[in-house]
Design goal:
- Helices cover 20% and strands 32% of the residues.
- 26% of the residues are buried.
- The chain is of the alpha+beta class and 222 residues long.
- A hairpin with a 5-residue loop joins strand 1 and strand 2.
- The longest helix is centred in the middle third of the chain and has 16 residues.
- The radius of gyration is 18 Å and the shape is globular.
- Strands 1, 2, 5, 6, 8 and 9 form a 6-stranded mixed sheet that branches. Strands 4-3-7-11-10 form a 5-stranded antiparallel sheet, with no helix packed on it.
- About 7% of the residues have low confidence.
- The protein has one domain.
Length: 222
Amino acid sequence: MAARRNIYLVMAAMMAGFAGTPARAHPHVWIEMQSDVVFTEDGLIKGVNLEWTFDDGYAQMALEGLDADGDGLYSQSELAPLTKENISSLKDYEYFTVMRADGEQQKIGEVTDFGQIWSNNKLTLHLQVPLEKPIDPKTQEFVLKVYDPEFFIAIDYVKDDPVDVVGKLPEACKLVVKPVPTDAELDQTRTMLSTKGADWKPENAEDFGAMFAQAVSIACKA
């Protein structure tokens, strides 16, 4: 049963009968996120840590039937099949994670460090998304965006301490979190998209979801 409860299949059940385009779609699963940019001892960026806390509606559907001992809690062993299936399904979407160096999207490796917990009546998934090749932020601009390209799942940073650094951040560099788009900016983007044809693509080979995603960058002095 757990194999049928990955993020996209549960989302599909929640939005049965829904039809729309990426430009006009509304999210049907909500995720609150925290992230870390992970550095090596040499000051290279090797990937990012993500922590996603799911909305109650998704959690209730995903957890249905998983409380094997009926104690009202969900142990690691009870959650393990769901967690494994979520990570497997997310691989097909590159874990909703886009990392760029000087505007060029970087290849990411397979996620092997992950887990999921049920605490305080919340379901939280954590994973580390590795880069195939580390990035030197002193020579290339690093930008991270985490989003569903079809905008069916809303992934938003928490308000307090949304992003941090793990490892050695070079002294000449700093972490920059772009402000959350205002409602006016979002409306302006939606209006602009409504004027574009079906074949139109955003700049830098990005997609519709990227235009609504909050960006994180590492800025280094020359």
